[in-house]
Amino acid sequence: MPVPLCMKSIVASPESLGARPLSLLNDMRRPDFRHSVTGRLGPIRSITTINGPEATVTDGSATSPDITMPPRIKFKRPDKTAKHIMQILDKEAVEEVRKEREIPDIRPGYIIQMKVVVPENKRRVSVLKAIVIARRNAGLNSTFRVRRLVAGVGVEAVYPLYSPNIMEIKVLDKKKVRRAKLYYLRDKINPLKK
Amino acid sequence: MIQAQTYLNVADNSGARELMCIRIVGASNPRYAHIGDVIVAVIKEAVPNMPLERSEVIRAVIVRTCKELKRDNGIIIRYDDNAAVVIDPEGNPKGTRVFGSIAGELRHLNFTKIVSLAPEVF
Questions:
Q1: pTM of the predicted model, to two decimals?
Q2: Is residue A53 less than 8 Å (CB to CB) from chain B?
Q3: Looking at domain B6-121, does it have CATH number 2.40.150.20?
Q4: A91, A99, B60, B82: most buried, per Cβ within 10 A?
Q5: Is 80 exceeded by the pLDDT of residue A4?
Q6: Which chain B positions have a beta carbon within 8 Å of A150's beta carbon?
Q7: Which residues, at least 6 apart from B71, have a Cβ–Cβ distance to it below 8 Å?
């Protein structure tokens, strides 16, 4: 049985992995497309070895037990890995939150005023004026750390950037700092904002 | 994470200035105390001419810790010092004023009087 032409395009070297969907599209325009699709769905997933095309095609009818196959090295298509999928989900979640609320760019050294809903207090804590001392980027779980003086005692708080408890963030001032994390402010009595 | 021998500031006007923790109250012999836990403490420094004197053993509830307090909504709070409020065996504060911000967790632990006296509840 002659190997159909579409098979040759599928049996590809790893470089054309990314182009594989295109080759399948090309096949769809061929007259024998139906035959090709029903005939072979197996090798499409398994053509990932680096050894060479002749080793990968396993014709269901024609392998004899004498032929020794070199070990298969499987690797996943990059867009099928869980890491990639999680990245997409993360970006979608972030965009969804950004559509609802306007979240300004917050960097260390900014003095911000935020309105936070505190469920313990059953009211809004309106004026939370603080200086941002750190920011951690982790997609939807990005957090930022603020520091403020409350009745003579310094209080630091870490907030998730996309938390629904934060009603509003307003940037009041931007101080020039030469660090990403301003933990040295803990030793200083007079924070930059004054 | 307050343990025995920890010095704490006093966040009210009961007359004590500094306490040293000697014991954490609790049936399970806890090693550390956090915000909202009651401790037994001895007064190391006191304001003169007040009902509380130095080297008196009293109970106090911790209101501020340098160790972070984590909340379920992802907010983490960290104070710059360790502080406590002197209380009597029922849980009422001995002083009449409370200084500094108080964490909202104390309200759920039935320290409502302290929370109502606080200038800011956070």
A1: 0.70
A2: no
A3: yes
A4: B60
A5: no
A6: 100-101, 120, 122
A7: B77
